[in-house]
Amino acid sequence: MTTPAATEHRSAAILSIGDELTLGQKLDTNARWLSQQLVDLGISIIEHVTVPDDLDAHAAALARLAPRCDLIISSGGLGPTADDLTRQALAIAARDTLVHDADGERQIRAWFAARARSLAPINLTQARRPSRGSLLENKHGTAPGLFSTIESASHRCDVFCLPGPPREMMPMFDASVRPALRPPEGRVIHTRVLHSVGLGESDLAQRLGPLMDRSNVPLIGTTASGGIVSIRIRYEGEAPRERARALVDAAAEKVMQLAGDYVFADGHDSLASVVLRTLKERGQSIAVVESCTGGTLAEELTAIPGSSASMLGGWITYSNQMKQTQVGVPTELFAQGAPGAVSREVARAMARGGRDRSGASIALSITGIAGPDGGTPTKPVGTVWISLAHASGSDTRRFSMAGDRASIRAWSCTAALAMAWQHLAGRSHPLLRQLEAHAE
Amino acid sequence: MTTPAATEHRSAAILSIGDELTLGQKLDTNARWLSQQLVDLGISIIEHVTVPDDLDAHAAALARLAPRCDLIISSGGLGPTADDLTRQALAIAARDTLVHDADGERQIRAWFAARARSLAPINLTQARRPSRGSLLENKHGTAPGLFSTIESASHRCDVFCLPGPPREMMPMFDASVRPALRPPEGRVIHTRVLHSVGLGESDLAQRLGPLMDRSNVPLIGTTASGGIVSIRIRYEGEAPRERARALVDAAAEKVMQLAGDYVFADGHDSLASVVLRTLKERGQSIAVVESCTGGTLAEELTAIPGSSASMLGGWITYSNQMKQTQVGVPTELFAQGAPGAVSREVARAMARGGRDRSGASIALSITGIAGPDGGTPTKPVGTVWISLAHASGSDTRRFSMAGDRASIRAWSCTAALAMAWQHLAGRSHPLLRQLEAHAE
Fold first, then answer.
1. Is A34 near chain B, with CB under 8 Å?
2. Cα(B34)–Cα(B29) distance, rounded to whole angstroms?
3. A355 neighbourhood in chain B, CB within 8 Å
4. What confidence score (pLDDT) does residue B75 get?
5. What are phi and psi of B113, to 5 degrees?
6. Which domains does chain A have, with CATH numbers?
7. Are residues B314 and A315, on separate chains, in Cβ contact within 8 Å?
8. Which of A412, A430, B238, B435 is the most buried (most CB within 10 A)?
9. Is the ipTM of this complex over 0.90?
């Protein structure tokens, strides 16, 4: 299994394969990850394409994309079963035949032997490769990857076929694809992303004005997602890398002058990571008490490596009894005629109880109606109370979130983290305008 | 804004638009959701395509796909800013010009007025549409959708352009696209998916044998994802709907005879939903105590509507102190030379403490090292202890998960839920073979 030589890779297409993707049974996360890796290297992505487990469609996609870019990276279709057709599709597109690779067979046998698993005869189909191609070693599964080229008289496209499961695909990319890539020498792509919360996308665009003209270098664009509006600044051209960086930084500076009050992070930071880092820098800590979000907020905080430095933990007080027994919400708040589980009083008591019992510097609580059932005329689905308890008191707010159960839960976490961020950053602008815009 | 007449829609392509997608900054969830809706109606998906915010690439994708299918549904690029180019791309591909839509302007103005938000002049660009097309009302945002057709002498393709944010896209699909669709009359697609845990994909394929031949009707395929191997059974053809269903059911019956011991669910059920439903049917309940997964397991359980019937809640005992004070893990287990936080003893004490304090019928605990830091030679990253406490004792197991932090957390939840399922279902086959296969 050799690492192939490569020409210069200026542009790439990402190909995902599988009925489970085109049938909508599974979300494609590989295309995003692969794009990130290539873009970081300065390689442009011309297209993502997903095709079903259909030999003709698969081979046709390869044949169509190959003349238009220098690199195709596919994932999926390398499994041992009859619906895995990547080997054949690559052979057709490369006008090649499949041969058995003895070294590949040895590696597959070794993989099974090391795990004391019996080898199924069909696993040996995974040792087949195009005669002019090569196999890529899989250290995390049975399916070797494939490399080959699709060539015309004037153009060569390198094709790397990786397995579908991310835990096999990602290490194989790092081990066998990344070292073989030749990013363009003279061409520079430099991007920065600023993330804002509290302004709608069009309000933000109005503030930025002519900065967003499509003829500008660098280009500035915005994207709204789950309550966050991200501002992308992107230079692509022939300038020296230092100059590209300076142009992007200057544009970011202008953005900050116009909308900096709402910008909470730069780059890969999220609201959760900014909150955690700020707490850590101050030697402070956080705990959470969740009802309708049921762990989503804790999950978001603990997803960040090193979060244990300031995240102590929390409670999922999903039942009223858990609210009472575990964080000390007064029983009378649940009585007939009392405010009830979704109320300012209960949200505040949850946050205060969580702060007291954990000893955290701040605590966030969320209680609401995520639906689809459980709404009432006075507390419709989407009614969410969020409270932040801190050393000098608490801040408790009502939100009316639109959307389905998953959206309501996700936006509730964003609103809670935005409240924590504003508290920690001492921001005083009118709050969460964008989140509240969904408050009907 | 009229609902357009449509021809028969046998096949469709899904187009996603945005630099944030091709740059890998954002995950495309729309393509999956849209595919699900169309497949449920019996419409075949020929391809998913994602292009950047580039007018030429966008118009070229429309022009390429239109002759090959009856329907294109796009999402993204309808925002008010200069990088939103869907209107122009559609006009180019349909060989049409853009006009201002007075009714659209009224709706946009009404949307802003109802929210007491000021209208930015650029918002009015969202009232532009191809002259032979129409706008689709957006009840959840400012961007109307677009409908138009791309026609040749012999073929017509209907194109619906929806906004990118899922909370706007999904209701617009339901209100304006779904009623306009004409699924093929004579053509039937019928699918079933069985989900299994505990067998590797190739072991499962070996059990199924010739059932998986690509020439079979219905087709049977497998997909592995995060510890679950799903078996897809799919009929597509001209048979009457009842006959298609019978063929698929007969194939599912054969699959159950060969591998039923490992099958935990059918259709859209997940391990979490099966566990919750079983508990509810028995009048039982569950609580969770999470360390390294930090809320991921609770999130997975509470994501299911109606989960409060059997999910009481839980604890995120992220710090050792929370483990001691909140669920009563004995302090001495953390002393020098004692087993420590990642151990059989602590996992068992967490599950027992959580069960006792919540009064739940069963409790699951997870404690481990999700990485990237914190590993030691005897407890490397990926070491995870999981315990299930129940009325007659507890079941505690060690797993060695591969992959990154997110994978380790996700697989830990799958393993925990699989333990609960096996306990509730009384299954006795060798456990979690597939999960343990990642145990090196």
1. yes
2. 9
3. none
4. 97
5. -60, -40
6. 11-180 (3.40.980.10), 195-266 (3.30.70.2860), 272-436 (3.90.950.20)
7. yes
8. A412
9. no
